[in-house]
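To the team - zinc ion complex, inputs and output below.
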Amino acid sequence: MPEGDTIYRAARALQKAIGGKVVTGFDTGLAKLARVNDDAPLVGRTVEKVESRGKWCLIFFSGDLILVTHMLMSGSWHLYRTGEKWWMGRDRMRVVVRTASWEAVGFNIPVAEFHTSRSLERSSQVPKLGPDILSDEFTVEGGAARLAAYGRENPDAEIAVVLLNQRVLAGLGNVYKSEVAFAAGVNPFRAMRTITSREMETMVEVSQRYMKANVVDGAGDGIVTYSGNRRTTHSSNREERLWVYGRQGQECRRCGATVMMRKQGVQARSTYWCPECQPWVGELPAPIGRATVVRRGKIGC
Ligand SMILES: [Zn+2]
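Output:
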């Protein structure tokens, strides 16, 4: 699944190319979109803005029409100069938005719908996203408060599953999930009720820092969170630029212990962690009149 910063970059590139421009052509292979276009043509509208919300890409057209797309595993937006040859076959084209000098082509996009601002607000399909980590308004305090509020309602939820939940915080994907938990020294399987405010703040701060660092223009398509020893990181291999993600069975870059991996959550997403740097913190219910017992130990493999 594309990470939030991939969608962010795609939305930013679209904004730069077609933002503020008048639509000169619109094609789609999706009947539902075609019907809307027949009734309320796209041609002649202006692209007001393109924005990402977590993993959703929203293209706002004048006259209160919003094209909402989600890439899931397979979809992608491409930008071509008018007349330029596409990199993928026409049979995979789902949506084309043309302006005088650009064609924005959505290939293999599995989820694409038109909305008005009201229907978007009411839509249950397009989730109400949590605050976008990459937005200008996002603050560490606000993000940490969001995590804390969710934790109070879902005390048994595992932190790494929560980090992936776009309704809590929008933008983090599966790679960042493991990297952020490592950077904060938090075992990814810990229940929300065991996570301290300080740890939440650290995870949010690291999330924002990593994601901002990775949306710099020309940063390549991989994610970089580890930039320590240059002798071991000159490789462009993605896994050599990360702390734990994809490094199962290898030495932890910080302590030398063996990095572990386990499938986590109902979606069985791979979670990587160092059992030494991210010790298990379990918490037993405190019997009345006695102190809370905090048990420390490692999660077995
Ligand atoms: Zn370690």
